[in-house]
Amino acid sequence: LFLDADACPVKDEAYRVAGRYGWPVKVVANAPMRVPAGPLVELVVKPGFAAADDWIADHAGPGDVVVTADIPLANRALEKGAAALD
Question: What is the pTM of this model?
Answer without folding.
Answer: 0.93
